[in-house]
Design goal:
Helix 1 packs antiparallel against helix 2, helix 1 runs antiparallel to helix 4 and helix 2 packs antiparallel against helix 3. Helix content is 79%, strand content 0%. The relative contact order is 0.13. The radius of gyration is 21 Å and the shape is flat. By secondary structure, the protein is mainly alpha-helical. The protein starts with a helix and ends in an 11-residue tail after the last helix.
Amino acid sequence: YLDILEDTRQDKELESRYLALESEARQLNILLFFGKWLAGTISGSIAITADAFNNLSDAGSSIITLIGFRLSGQEPDPEHPFGHGRMEYVSGLVVAAVILIMAVELIQDSIRKILHPEATECSALIIVILLISIAVKLYFVLIQFDIALHFREVKNTCQMERIIYIQVYPE
C-alpha cells in the first residue's frame, strides 16, 4: 500500500510539473506567435507567417483542450444524467475547426503569392527571431523528454510490482 501511495505522490508531482510546463508553453507560444508574425510581416514570407499561426494554434488548442477536460469532468446533473464526458469530443472538434479555418486562409494567401509573387526580405532581426524560436522549441523537447522518461520509470515500476498503472487527468 505504501508503494502505491508513493507512486501516487510521484504522479501528483509529475502532473503538477506537466501543468506548469503546459502553462509556460502556452505563454511562450503566444510570444513566439508575435515574434514570428512580426518577422513574417517584415520579410513578406508566408512560411514564417504560417509558422507563427502554428504557434498560436498550439496555444489555443491547449487552452480549448484544458477547458474541455474541465467541463467533461463535471459531475452528472439533472440535465446531463450521464455526465459531461462528451465535452472532450466537442473541444476536439472546435480545435480541428479552428486549425482547418487557418489552413484554408494560409492556402489562399499562398495561392495569391504564387499568382502575384513578391520578393521576400531577410534581416538580422528576422534571423534572431527565428534562432530564438528554435532555442525555445529545443527547450520544450528537452523538458518533454524528461517527463516522458519519468512516465516510463513510473510505468515500469508499476509493472514490476504488478500494479495497474492508470493515468489520471487533472480535475
